[in-house]
Amino acid sequence: MNFAKFFELAKAKGIEESQLSFSKSNALSISLFRHEIENFSVNDSQSVIAAGVINGKFGSCRTEKLDKDTFPFLIDNILLAARLNEKEEVADIFPGSEKYHKKNVYNPKLAAVSANEKLALIQDIEKAIYAADKRVCDVEVGYSERESESGFYNSFGLKLKQKSNYFYIMAEVVMREGEATKTNYDMFLDSDLEAFDKDAFVKRVVEGAAKKFGADSIASKKYPTVIDRDVMADLIDYFLSSAIADEVQRHSSMLEGKLEQKIASSKLTIEEKPLTKNVFFSYFDGEGVATQNKVIVKNGVLKQYFYNRETAKKDNVESTGNGSWGGGKIGTSYGNIFVKPGKVSFDELIADIEDGVYITEVMGLGTGMNSTSGDFSCQAEGFRIVNGKVAEPLTLITLSGNLLKMLKDLKGFDSNAKMTLGSISIANARIKSMNIGGK
Amino acid sequence: MISKALALEVLNAALATGGDYAEIYVEETTPESFMLENGKVESVGSPQGYGCGLRILNGLRSVYGYTSDLSKKSLLALAEKLSASYEGERKITVEKIGNGRYKKHSFVQTHLRDVPAEEKIDYLREISKIISGVDPRIVRVQTGLTCTVKNIDLFVAEGPEATHFHNVEERSRLFMVAIAAGAEGFETCFNGPGTTAGWEFFTKTLDYKKLAKETGEKAIMMLTAKECPSGRYTVVIKNGWGGVLFHEACGHPLEASSTSKGLSVFSDSIGKPIASPCVSAWDDGTIENEWGTSDIDSEGVPTQKNELIRDGVCVGFMVDRFSARRMNGIKANGTSRRQSYRYCPTSRMSNTYIAAGKDDPEDIIKDTPLGIYVANFGGGSVNPTTGEFNFSASEAYIIRDGKICEPVKGCTLIGTGQEVLMQIDRVGNDLALGQGNCGAASGSVPVNVGQPTIRLKEITVGGRGGKLE
């Protein structure tokens, strides 16, 4: 589409400043169930989000319908939204950052591999999972890939473009032993198929399920607790969402007034590095602001909130390049989070725990977490730790506590950092003690 | 959106390699939303959705694709790409497209889009004012109103004559959130009534003033609530939204997407007792003007009232066309749903509830010497293969000597669907429904959960307050 035409039309309708972002993506996904292709899907989609400012009021609109009526539709709705907008702050459109750090993260090799080869890969994985353990009764293996292109344009002449792609492989295994059924799930994400180690993946997902047999509950009390990196990533995500300036300014963040204060153990250092060259790379945000790497927590001290342009203006600081679109307005998001790992191995991390708990999975954190107070309670699974070694599996236990208290009680991480699908790189964590509910 | 002639061409392209079923789902959505923060308009949205999903089945195989480009070239390219994954000979040639019939279950008197924006905003402002007025400790109030109108054209081909369905769905929902702050931290209370009726629901049917006041009061009350005890206790669950427990723990495992593949704890349960004899349950997509109601499902099958459990015995599942292929002799029953054209449809719940029993809810409490009363849930999740679930209560109280006493926070119920169904020992006569959005394989779909007041003899309660005394 000729986007220059949009800016002309907008100006003619009295929209002094405007911007437009365009995104286009195509995706492939294949999944197998009991040796058959259960799902095969291909898709492409496109959308445009446009925004403008009239008399200092902001309005925006999004559409997936791209035809001759698109621009008039967007403009009419921008005008309506701006007319009804009651925000007191004077809005404007961002002209552009001085410097952008563009990198090429698109891997053309991924698209060159045929769908049939990708199918063969997951058929191999399925076969290997069935062969790995006699108790495996069902396997679901899937391959998904996505290629996306985005562009950002504004009435000041800014033009930004980015293209990226990634794939992920997921497997869910169901095992039966007598009456007991156990499931386990794992996934792998990258943009380079060569980075995938099939044998290690199969081993991890199968052993993960096998280890759960014979699980029981445990007496309710406080235990020294080790939290698996995947679970820890979810918990850190809640912590980070409290560092969004908007939440702080609306008095609904547990981190309000805590800048430059020690809010966690000195073992906690968190950075946001959007300019890291990986599948989560992005060099401009939803408002066209250049992104930047930054420290959020350093040795337990809170150093930085996440800002978009509007929240930055309220605090009289610069946007940190964390603006993003959501629900018809500019919100705030983050990505490529790196939590500094420790230096010890997992065995060393748990070596001095006589009677503890290793949490490997939590369920229901979404509803069990009060994200304003940090209090949480959720169902969990894992293992006992006895005399420094991982012992019998645990099921139907609950993990509860307060997020900030937990981070203050953080004794350290091991060295096994992993990047999650939620773009948080984190290792396994040891917490002094946590409430475990059971029998 | 697309002509019958083009649909015919696309269906035939889709069936060229041996597919035995093809379905085109074209959708244009025009939602509008108004969000207010502390009584001021924060955003007005009108995001337009537009696209087409194409599905081709061949025996137990399914391929699905979608595009937001509805040109002939794009649709035929999609049909060709998808059909290329089958390698057979054509079995079906579609010769004509007839019109599908169905009964309407939702009736809108005043469309939300016909109400001036200012009037809807004033309504939200009034609600916001009531909530803020409850107590100065309410530091933040969010109110919102969304209305989504979906224009759907569905073409289904299983033989030489395909069927075309045109359907318009209008669904609206009100949101109110109160956030209270005290020395103890923050507490949030949310309410979100929804409907497939029109503006008349919000202004006439719903007692929005009472709901707003309660939203504020509950947030304040929870500020001083003590931590919930943990252990195994008798739990009474209030009617209405309390049914989310049944939805998660028992409803999902009764969806044919799990049962047909033997992935559910209830896979082989038809005719067998799965619940205590006082439990009967239904999934009913036809309840007039309810939030989870539709006229037809995503495969063109009319919605119906499906019995799931009769006096404790499992009698039915929610079945979509594809899952039905794995289930000998069982037919699709109007429960195939999807969030949008971006999702391949599968069996889902609509308005799902435990039927009313005989007990007076007050007697159920009176007959409970010590336990927990859960008045509202935040939500929860379940693993359909193992049946394990967890639910967190957003409003709960201790029951002492048959009376509802002090409120407690951080209460989580955990267990398995099989266990909880057997643990129900009392069922009240006060059936009510509650609105939510349910996320699963085919996206987020609007659902009603529901139940009368019920009692669970004993279930694991997680909390940080030690033992209940």
Report on the architecture of this protein.
- The complex is a heterodimer of chains A (439) and B (469).
- By secondary structure, chain A is of the alpha+beta class.
- Chain A has helices spanning 3-12, 70-84, 108-112, 115-132, 198-210, 229-241, 245-249, 309-314, 346-350, 365-368, 403-408; strands spanning 17-33, 36-54, 57-63, 136-154, 159-177, 180-190, 221-227, 270-272, 294-298, 301-302, 323-326, 329-332, 337-339, 355-363, 375-386, 389-402, 410-413, 418-419, 424-426, 429-437.
- Chain A folds into three domains: 3-209, PmbA/TldD superfamily (PmbA/TldD fold), CATH 3.30.2290.10; 214-235 and 343-437, no CATH class; 241-339, no CATH class.
- Chain A has eleven helices and 20 strands.
- In chain A, strands 3-2-1-4-5-6 form a six-stranded antiparallel β-sheet. In chain A, strands 10-9-8-13-19-18 form a six-stranded mixed β-sheet, covered by helices on one side. A five-stranded mixed beta barrel of chain A has the order 7-14-15-16-20.
- The model of chain A has no long low-confidence stretch (mean pLDDT 93).
- With 469 residues, chain B is of the alpha+beta class.
- Chain B has two domains: 4-223, PmbA/TldD fold; 227-462, no CATH class.
- Chain B has helices spanning 4-14, 72-83, 117-132, 199-205, 208-223, 244-251, 256-259, 321-324, 361-366, 417-423; strands spanning 21-37, 40-45, 49-58, 61-67, 96-99, 138-157, 161-182, 185-191, 194-195, 226-227, 231-237, 281-284, 305-310, 313-314, 336-337, 346-347, 351-354, 370-382, 388-400, 403-409, 411-416, 424-427, 432-440, 443-451, 454-462.
- The model of chain B has no long low-confidence stretch (mean pLDDT 94).
- The chains are: A alpha+beta (439), B alpha+beta (469).
- Chains A and B meet through strand 2, strand 3, helix 2, strand 6 and helix 10 of A and strand 1, strand 2, strand 3, strand 4 and helix 2 of B.
- Strand 2 of chain A pairs parallel with strand 4 (61-67) of chain B.
